[in-house]
Each structure stands twice: as structure tokens, then as C-alpha cells.
């Protein structure tokens, strides 16, 4: 039986949301030309890869209900304590968000709800559910066929976790309105995810202990603070889903304050903690003395003007990625892991093959009409104006209000490296800024006494705790490389509000 128990069939209507602002100009075509000619397209999640995608003949069968399976393994993609399906997001009649959830293997009612959003922008959260922190783990058997088995260290050990394909157009999520209905900013993502959490709470009010944690990875360094703040403000205004209180926010190898973080591209490429010089001294000096100041100026101009069509943001996106990331990319090293030249293409291909297999797809209740892509390029393109926006300013009010914040980073990642993440956390203006910066770096101690990482933490009065954690020996997708350590991390964060 489903651990989610009896499900109420009536989903009340939400009050009509504000109309979604549309872009004034159709810039996507132009951007595509600029990018393909001058920029190696970097995705803050995983590099794009052309899959042969499975497109079944039938139109989506119209059944938007969740399904559960009676299978203890992950043979068809869901364990016994898993559930998946769609919610209609009320901003649009035709926008459906796909979710995949696994309840706590201990006790659902005594564990919080953890929302997970993968980055990209445009990458499916199923990638995380199937190869990072989910209940299932995909790998290839001897014949090369993609299969899944139960993961040893899923984050659903002591939490009820829901992985959401968002925004519309990502993974199995879709919109019938086409390109014009795709999201293009973290603000719109926040609106949609607030609506999603309403839906979740209406449908599964007993699926947790009343506590909510919002986690995101990579480009999710925009999403988690934005969604968290939208939820936090909604709670204060009495407009949040009843019975679900925000407790904490987490970002893994995220991009949150680009102006600070891009400074560490040259630094990490040349002076990372692994002693690998991925770029030359000449490149390093040229970046620091010449390219970086120009990049910073452009990011600044982007953030000085909140107009969503501010072309300075596109300018910064193209310039900074070309000037500061390309030399590293040309070294041939994996942008997500300085230790290797091998990329993640096959991991993504394996997950894609697995979730689009007919039997698995049916068990996952994924719409037949949707062509699943690990990372959707159209969605990515929509976000190029949002890329350089900083959203760390959303955090101090939440810390004041008692929300715990955890910023963590696998320390082998180049693209959203730990140095840049630590730097923006140290620069964050909040009541505990000095306390945090004066705090000693402390080990993140695993139950057997070994340090799985190290970092800093501070807390002011009854406010929330801010923690930064560097995870030793992990790349961009930290839970993929260090599943046990990151499971310990999330368990500790939920139990104590910190990890040290
Ligand atoms: C402690 O556990 C970690 C993670 O499994 C492992 O890497 C480490 O070697 C262990 N340390 C000792 C002293 O057993």
C-alpha cells in the first residue's frame, strides 16, 4: 500500500494568481545566434547532450493523478514508499508540474517535507532522484542496459522528499501553451513553486510533520532563496499553505551572487585545493587584471536595473562566461569536477534511457506526449537574462525570522566552486555577519569521527542559523559523489539547524 494513505480527491481551487508578465521582445532567436557563435554553452547542472528521446505515439492519456506501485525495489523507478504524478499549476490551465516523491523510510508523520529543485536552468530533478540523493540509483548492467536499484543513502531516510521537474518544460513537466509559457526568471519560478506547494499540501496534508525545507542545486542557487523568500513572505501575510511551516533552506554548489562568485573562476582554475593548474599563469593574470574587472562591471550594470529585459544582463552573461570560464573549458577538464577529464554524458543518458522505458514511464505516470530531455535547452535560453541576477539579499530577512540556511559545496567543482560560495556567504549583510566571519572553521564530523568536510556557522539570538559547508572530495553534484556524507548532512541540518 502507498504510505501516503487515502487521498482526498477534491482539490480546492486556489485564488486566481496575478497574470504572468510576458517578455516584450522575442529575443530567443537572437540570443541563440549570439550564443552559438561566441559562447560555449555552460549549464549549471550538466552539459547539454543530444539524446535520442523516446516519444510515444499517443497523446497524454489525460490521467493527471498520482500513482503508487507495490514494488520494494526500484525496478520500475519507484520504491514502495514512492509516489509520482502531476499538479496543475493554477497560473495557467495547461501548465503541469511533474513530481516524484519518496517518503521517509523511518516515519512519514514525524519527518519534514523536503522540496528539491535541480538546476540547469532546465535540468530535470529526476536526475537527482535517480543518481544523486533519491531513493533509486540508475546504473548500467553488463549488457549496457540502464537499470535502477534502491539507493543506499537517499535523502528520504529521515525526510519526505519531493523532486519537482520545474519550471514548465523541464523533464516530464509541460505546458500546452508552448514557448510563450516558459518561465524566464527566478521570480516566476517562486510564484509557480508556491502554487505547487499549495497543491501538495491540499493533496497530501498528512505526508509530513508540518515542517518544510527547500533545497536546490546549481542554478537553483537562484531558485531556493527566491522560492524560500516567497514562501516566507506568504506565511507572514497569511497566504501560505496552512499546516506547512518553512524551517530551512539549502543550496548545493549554487550560483547565488554572480558578481562575487565569478571572481573565483580564475582563482579555482589556477589555485584550487587539489593542486591542479587547469589554466596557465598568463591566463590567470590576464583574467584577474583585465577580464575580471570588465565582467564585474557588467554584472553590476545588470543588477543595477531590475528591468527583466535589461540587456546588460545578457551582455554580462556572454562576456563573463566567455572570458572567465572558456579557458578552463579548453583545458578539457570536467567543469563539474577538476579531478577528471570525463564528463557526465553517460550518466545522463542512462537516467534518460531508464525513465523513458515504457514500463518505467508508465509506472512513473509520466505524460506520454512529453519528450523527456535531461536538460531542456529552450528553458535554459529563457533564463540567460536571469543568470547574473543576485538573490542573496532574499536571505537576511529569513535569518532574522528564524529560518536556517545551509550553503554547501563539493570542493572539486569548478563551475560553482566552494571558494566563490564561501565568499558570498562571508559578504552577506546580516546581523551575524561579524560573528560568522570570526567563527573558526570547524570540521563536519561523521558518526565514525572522520571529517566529511568543514565550514563555519553562526546564529544570532532566536534567529536562524547560517552555515557554510565545504564537502571534501565531491564535485558539482555533491550527493552523487558523496551520498553518505550528504545524507548525514541533511539529517543533521533537519535535526539541529546546522551541520557543525
Ligand atoms: C568514516 O566513514 C567515512 C564514510 O563512509 C569513510 O570514508 C571513512 O574512511 C571512515 N573513517 C574511519 C576512521 O573508519
Automatic annotation (TrEMBL):
PANTHER family: SERINE CARBOXYPEPTIDASE CTSA-4.1 (PTHR11802:SF113), SERINE PROTEASE FAMILY S10 SERINE CARBOXYPEPTIDASE (PTHR11802)
Keywords, alphabetical: Carboxypeptidase, Glycoprotein, Hydrolase, Membrane, Protease, Transmembrane, Transmembrane helix
Pfam families membership: Peptidase_S10 (PF00450)
Any GO BP annotation: proteolysis
GO molecular function: serine-type carboxypeptidase activity
SUPFAM superfamilies: alpha/beta-Hydrolases
Family: Belongs to the peptidase S10 family.
Keyword Acetylation included in the entry's annotation: no
InterPro entries xrefs: AB_hydrolase_fold, Peptidase_S10, Ser_caboxypep_his_AS
Organismal lineage: Eukaryota, Sar, Stramenopiles, Ochrophyta, Bolidophyceae
Protein name (Swiss-Prot/TrEMBL): Carboxypeptidase
Amino acid at each position: 500500500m502507498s504510505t501516503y494513505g487515502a487521498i482526498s480527491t477534491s482539490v480546492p481551487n486556489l485564488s486566481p494568481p496575478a497574470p504572468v508578465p510576458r517578455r516584450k521582445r522575442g529575443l530567443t532567436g537572437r540570443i541563440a545566434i549570439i550564443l552559438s557563435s561566441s559562447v560555449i554553452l555552460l549549464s549549471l547542472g550538466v552539459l547539454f547532450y543530444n539524446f535520442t528521446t523516446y516519444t510515444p505515439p499517443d497523446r497524454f492519456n489525460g490521467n493527471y493523478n498520482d500513482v503508487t506501485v507495490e514494488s520494494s525495489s526500484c525496478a520500475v523507478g519507484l520504491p514502495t514508499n514512492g509516489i509520482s504524478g502531476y499538479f496543475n499549476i493554477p497560473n495557467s490551465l495547461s501548465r503541469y508540474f511533474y513530481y516524484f516523491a519518496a517518503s521517509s523510510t523511518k516515519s512519514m508523520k514525524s519527518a519534514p517535507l523536503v522540496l528539491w529543485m535541480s538546476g540547469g536552468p532546465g535540468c530535470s530533478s529526476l536526475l537527482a532522484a535517480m543518481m544523486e540523493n533519491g531513493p533509486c540509483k540508475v546504473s548500467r548492467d553488463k549488457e549496457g542496459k540502464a537499470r535502477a536499484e534502491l539507493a543506499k543513502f537517499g535523502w528520504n531516510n529521515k525526510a519526505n522528499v519531493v523532486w519537482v521537474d520545474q519550471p514548465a518544460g523541464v523533464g516530464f513537466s509541460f505546458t500546452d501553451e508552448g514557448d510563450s509559457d516558459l518561465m524566464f526568471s527566478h521570480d516566476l519560478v517562486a510564484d509557480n513553486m508556491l502554487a505547487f506547494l499549495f497543491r501538495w499540501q491540499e493533496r497530501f496534508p498528512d505526508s509530513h510533520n508540518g515542517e518544510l525545507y527547500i533545497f536546490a542545486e546549481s542554478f537553483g542557487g537562484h531558485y531556493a532563496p527566491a522560492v524560500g523568500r516567497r514562501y516566507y513572505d506568504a506565511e507572514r501575510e497569511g497566504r501560505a499553505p496552512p499546516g506547512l511551516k518553512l524551517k530551512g533552506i539549502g543550496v548545493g554548489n549554487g550560483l547565488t551572487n554572480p558578481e562575487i562568485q565569478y571572481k573565483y573562476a580564475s582563482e579555482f582554475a589556477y589555485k584550487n585545493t587539489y593542486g591542479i593548474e587547469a589554466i596557465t599563469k598568463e591566463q590567470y593574470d590576464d583574467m584577474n587584471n583585465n577580464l575580471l574587472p570588465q565582467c564585474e562591471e557588467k554584472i553590476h550594470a545588470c543588477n543595477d536595473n531590475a528591468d527583466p529585459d535589461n540587456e546588460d544582463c545578457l551582455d554580462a552573461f556572454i562576456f563573463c562566461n566567455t572570458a572567465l570560464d572558456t579557458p578552463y573549458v579548453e583545458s578539457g577538464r570536467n567543469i563539474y569536477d577538476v579531478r577528471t577529464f570525463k564528463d557526465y554524458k553517460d550518466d545522463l543518458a542512462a537516467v534518460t534511457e531508464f525513465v523513458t522505458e515504457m514500463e518505467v514511464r508508465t509506472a512513473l505516470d509520466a505524460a506520454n506526449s512529453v519528450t523527456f530531455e535531461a536538460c531542456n535547452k529552450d528553458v535554459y535560453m529563457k533564463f540567460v537574462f536571469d543568470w547574473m541576477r543576485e538573490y542573496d539579499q532574499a536571505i537576511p530577512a529569513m535569518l532574522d525570522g528564524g529560518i536556517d540556511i545551509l550553503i554547501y559545496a563539493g570542493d572539486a567543482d569548478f563551475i560553482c566552486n566552494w571558494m566563490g560560495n564561501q565568499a558570498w556567504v562571508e559578504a552577506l549583510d546580516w546581523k551575524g555577519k561579524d560573528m560568522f566571519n570570526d567563527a573558526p572553521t570547524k570540521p563536519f564530523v561523521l558518526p565514525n569521527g572522520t571529517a566529511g568536510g568543514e565550514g563555519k556557522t553562526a546564529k544570532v539570538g532566536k534567529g536562524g542559523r547560517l552555515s557554510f559547508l565545504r564537502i571534501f572530495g565531491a564535485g558539482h553534484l555533491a550527493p552523487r559523489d558523496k551520498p553518505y556524507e550528504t545524507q548525514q548532512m541533511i539529517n543533521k541540518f533537519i535535526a539541529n539547524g546546522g551541520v557543525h
